[in-house]
Specification:
The longest helix has 31 residues, at 289-319. The protein is an all-alpha fold and 403 residues long. 69% of the residues lie in helices and 2% in strands. A two-stranded antiparallel sheet has the order 1-2. The chain is globular and about 65 Å long. It has helices at 2-15, 22-29, 32-59, 71-91, 95-119, 139-156, 165-184, 189-206, 210-230, 232-242, 249-264, 289-319, 326-350, 368-384, 389-393, and strands at 121-123, 126-129. The protein is built from 15 helices and 2 strands. A hairpin with a 2-residue loop joins strand 1 (121-123) and strand 2 (126-129).
Length: 403
């Protein structure tokens, strides 16, 4: 009988809530709703890339080189196969190890970002990539989650280690300014806006002083005006958005084509493969994939995609309501904000509510760098939101009262 009880105990520990192995702890601590919503987005992305692939393949084919209609779909399937293990492995890391990995990654990818203007590869008029052939990657995509964790870590040191809030805020501001300057050299105005928005949001969440927030809010219109005057890329995009009848038609063609494609399918869409307007889009598989979804699957499908993005962000913030650790709160909130703001910008561009920025839609758009980096970022988000409610509820857990 004792042998039988011992066997049952070992079996229970290997698969039950008492199993605290790496895999067992991950299984019981992970936010399954957040993970399922993410996997659902990835599946929608594969369908969307399959719908957009024929248009892009036709656009980049010529008399000497004919691309297969589903060329980009098969490549995206390959990138998903690479990215999913990254997502799961990173999500299994303890919070302190995930933080250490992200801080090292921030330093490394910041150096790579600095090398882009010197040794980068130019694609479609922008120099944003490093490497050659299939080994090309975009450092800014990988820097995003690492940058957020680094800023969250610095802000969590406020009033600790002898650092005042002003010093910590200044350090994060200098880091953000360096990243913004390097991005504008590429040029990449959209990513610059994204990095600055996330930094500002983290300052708000960390409890920055009203004076600092007021100064930063006052600096926003000054920065936009300066960008319009001195930064030709921003001026061209803003003019094309605000004054479409007075600028070169080629500058606002993309926005008009995206909006027309988005609404061409009505509420229910033309059906898979039935879209024709998508063949007019310059980057149907990346920047304007939301419009392809609208044409072939309808505006209702677009609404569902938007609701999933919103559900992911809301889920994270609901989980953080009772979070006591400053770093985990800031890191998870920053990653969720980056995810939501990037999706919002992409949808705004596709609907004509914002100027074209070259912003991909998370887990939906085609791209190896984007898919792997987003999987790493979501893995970090899952790692920072992991918790075991069953341990906290156990009546056998002894808590020291301090007396």
């Amino acid at each position: 009988m004792p042998q039988r009880d011992g066997l049952l105990t070992r079996v229970a520990r290997r698969g039950g809530r008492a199993d605290r192995s790496a895999l067992g702890a991950w299984f019981w601590d992970i936010d399954w709703l957040l993970l399922i919503l993410t996997l659902f987005l990835i599946a929608i992305g594969l369908v969307a890339v399959a719908a957009a692939s024929p248009a892009t393949a036709q656009r980049y084919s010529d008399t000497t080189h004919k691309m297969a209609p589903l060329y980009y779909f098969w490549r995206q399937l390959m990138w998903v196969g690479v990215s999913l293990p990254v997502l799961f492995v990173v999500s299994m890391l303890p919070a302190d190890r995930a933080r250490r990995m992200a801080l090292i990654g921030c330093a490394g990818f910041l150096v790579m970002l600095a090398l882009v203007p010197v040794a980068g590869v130019t694609v479609n008029g922008a120099r944003r990539w490093l490497g050659v052939g299939v080994a090309q990657f975009q450092p800014s995509e990988f820097l995003k989650p690492c940058f957020i964790v680094a800023v969250a870590w610095l802000l969590s040191l406020k009033n600790k280690e002898g650092l005042s809030p002003a010093i910590v805020g200044a350090l994060t501001g200098v880091l953000t300014a360096i990243v913004a300057m390097l991005l504008m050299l590429q040029p990449d105005f959209g990513q610059t806006v994204l990095f600055c928005t996330v930094w500002f949001a983290l300052l708000l969440i960390s409890g920055a002083s009203a004076r600092m927030i007021g100064l930063l809010m006052g600096a926003v219109p000054v920065g936009l005006l300066s960008a319009y005057i001195f930064y030709s890329t921003a001026r061209t995009r803003i003019d094309a958005f605000l004054f479409p009848t007075t600028t070169d038609p080629a500058e606002h063609f993309q926005v008009n084509a995206a909006r027309a494609t988005l609404t061409a399918g009505g509420w229910l869409g033309t059906g898979p493969g039935g879209g024709q307007m998508k063949f007019r889009l310059p980057e149907a598989h990346t920047d304007y994939i939301f419009s392809v979804i609208g044409e072939e699957f309808g505006l209702i499908a677009c609404g569902i995609v938007a609701v999933i993005f919103l559900a992911i962000v809301v889920r994270v913030f609901v989980k953080l309501l009772d979070e006591q650790d400053d770093f985990r709160l800031l890191a998870a909130a920053g990653l969720a904000i980056q995810f939501g703001v990037q999706a919002l910008i992409s949808m705004a561009v596709n609907t004509g509510l914002a100027p074209s920025k070259g912003m991909t839609m998370p887990f939906i758009s085609y791209g190896g760098s984007s898919m792997i980096a987003l999987s790493a970022g979501m893995g970090l988000l899952l790692a920072f939101t992991r918790r075991n409610p069953f341990v906290l509820r156990s009546p056998y857990v002894v808590k020291w009262s301090g007396e």
